[in-house]
Amino acid sequence: MASDDLENASRPLTLRDVSEASGVSEMTVSRVLRNRGDVSAATREKVLEAARALGYVPNKIAGALASQRVNLVAVIVPSLQNLVFPEVLAGISEVLDQTHFQPVYGVTNYKPEREEKVLYEMLSWRPSGVIIAGLEHSDASRAMLKSAGIPIVEIMDTDGEPIDSVVGISHRRAGREMAQAIVKQGYRKIGFLGTKMPLDHRARKRFEGFTQALAKEGIEIHDREFYEGGSALLKGREMTETILKRSPDLEFLYYSNDMIAAGGLLYCLDNDIDVPGRVGLAGFNGVELLEGLPVKLATMDACRAEIGREAARIIARRASGEEGGGEKVVLTPTIDLGATLKR
Amino acid sequence: MASDDLENASRPLTLRDVSEASGVSEMTVSRVLRNRGDVSAATREKVLEAARALGYVPNKIAGALASQRVNLVAVIVPSLQNLVFPEVLAGISEVLDQTHFQPVYGVTNYKPEREEKVLYEMLSWRPSGVIIAGLEHSDASRAMLKSAGIPIVEIMDTDGEPIDSVVGISHRRAGREMAQAIVKQGYRKIGFLGTKMPLDHRARKRFEGFTQALAKEGIEIHDREFYEGGSALLKGREMTETILKRSPDLEFLYYSNDMIAAGGLLYCLDNDIDVPGRVGLAGFNGVELLEGLPVKLATMDACRAEIGREAARIIARRASGEEGGGEKVVLTPTIDLGATLKR
DNA sequence: CTGAAAGCGCTAACAC
DNA sequence: GTGTTAGCGCTTTCAG
After folding, report:
1. Which residues form the HTH lacI-type domain (chains A, B) (predicted)?
2. Å between B65 CA and C3 C1'?
C-alpha cells in the first residue's frame, strides 16, 4: 500500500507494472489496452482490472515512436480572441471527435515568424495532418508544410495557391458581392472601415474585391478609416464618428468585420442618425452577437463552422490512408441584408 | 537531387540523415541542434548547414522518450467561445513564450466526462504540468491529476479544495460584494439572471454569495430567470423583457455575465427604461466589449489575463525543478460601478 | 571537443 | 490466444 503510493509518486507507471500486477505478458497487456487482436475474456479482465487499480496511463510517446503513428492533428489559427476562429475549431472538433484523431491548437497572433515557430514545434511531434488558416505563409513555413509528407488543409480563404488542399470562401468575391448589393440599393458615396491590413490578408482581399466591383460601376471609395488593436466595438464607434465628421456626405459604410460594424451601428443609433436611410451599414462574418443588436445588421456569413468540419473531414480521410490530395472546397457565403442595407 | 526529393517525400528525415550529409556523428549533430555541450564552431556550422539544406525537423517523440522530458504544458478550459478563456490563454502564452515550455490546449465543453477524456489524452503525452479550469472534477480526473507526478494548477476559482496549486478569485466573495454595492445604493427589489447553473460552478458560487449577502441585509431575491445556449446578447434581451414584464417592480438586475447584461442594457435603452434610475444593472467579467456600449455597464473584473500569467509562472517554476507545491493565489477583482449602478 | 554503446516504453512481426 | 525479439529516433552516459 504505502510502497505503492511511493512508487506512484516517484515514477510513472509502465506497461511492465501492469504486466507484473496482472501476471500477463507486456505484449498481451498492450493488446488489451488498445483493443487489438484476440485476447481471451479472462485475461482481458485481469489486465483491465490491474490497469485500473494502478491508475495506469499509457505513454503515448513510446507508443507513437514504436508504431510510427500519431493521432494528433495540428490546427493553426491567428487568434482565439476573434470569435471566428473558436467557431472554426468547434467545427473541427465536431468531426474529429468521431474519429480517433485529436486536434491540437496553435496560435500565431497574425505573425508569420510566430507561425513558423508554432508550425515547427508542432511538426516536430509528427502529427497526422495540419489544418492552417490562410494561404499566405513564409517561405520556410511553406517548405516545412510541403515536405512534411502529411495532408495539409489551408482554411478560410481560397484566393491563392494552396500547398495541398484548401477549404474556405473567396474573400475577393465576398467583397465584390457586397459592393454590388450596396450599389444596387442606390448608395453611391461609400466608405470603408477596417483593420490595418498588412496583418489580415482576408480583410485585404475583401477590400480589393470591394473596390474592384465598385470601380466597375464607375465608383471610387469615398473615404476610408483603419484601426489597430483595442476593443473592436469601441473602435467601430470612434471610427464611425471620425469618418462621418470628415465626410458628412457618406451614404454607406462597409466594415471589415461585424464587431466594428456593431460599434458603428450603436454610434448611429445613439446620435439619431437614420439607418439605413441617412447612412447604410454592412459588416462581415455573421457573428452570433449580431442577433442581440437593436437593428439587424447587414452581413455576410463566412461559413466558419462548415469550413472547420470540411477541413477535418478531409484530414480524417487522408490521414486514415485514403488516397487524395489537392482537394479544393469553395463555400459560398450568403449575404444577409438585415435592416441596414436597403433603402 | 531527384533522389533527395524522393526520399524526402517517402520518409521523414532523421538525425542520421543529417549526420551522413555533414560527415559528423549523430551524437554531435544532436548536440549542435540542441545547443548542448561544447562543439567547435567549424563542425557546428557544417551541421547547421546540412540540417537547413535538408529541411530537417527533429523528432520530438524520440527525443522525449530518450530524455524523459517534454516541454508541453496541458491547459484545459471549458470553452473557447466564451471570450473569458481565450483571455486566460493569452496570459498563459505571454509567460510561457519566455520559457522553453509550450502550452497545449484542450476543451471540455463544460462536460466532466469530456474533461476526463481530454485529461487522459493529454496526460498520456506526459506533459510537464497541467493548468485546468475549476476545482470541480470527476473522481477519476482528480485521481489522474493527483498521481500524475507533475505540477497542477487549478485556475479561475478559489472556493474549494485544490489538488495542488490554485490561482483565481473567490466567486462567492465576488457575488457578495456586488450584492453589498447594490444594497448600498438603495436598491431593494433585486432580480438575478444567469445560465442554468449545474454546468457552471463559478456562476453558481457567485449566485450563492450574492443571495447570502442579501440575506444578511434581510433581502430575498425578488425574481430570477435562467437560460441555456444561444446568443448571449439576445438571451439577455429576451430574459430582461420576460423578467421585467413578470415583475415590473424590480429595481435591479444582476446578470451572471457581461454579455447577457449588455443585452439587457440594450433592451432597456430601446424601450426607454431609465437606467439606472428606474432599474439598475450589473454584469460580471469586465469584458472588453463593454467599452463600446452606449452606457458603461457595472461589472467586476475577473482578472483573467493575470490568472493565466500567474498560473503559467507557477508551472514554469515548478516544472523547471524548483521545489514547491500547494501555492494558493487569490486575486481580488475590482468592482466597476459604471453608469448603471448608482442612483 | 567528439564518438560508441545502451536504452527510454512501447508495438510490429513473427513464433509458439 | 499468447509470448519473444527487435527496434522506432533520439539522448544519456561514459570513454577517448
Report:
1. 13-67
2. 22
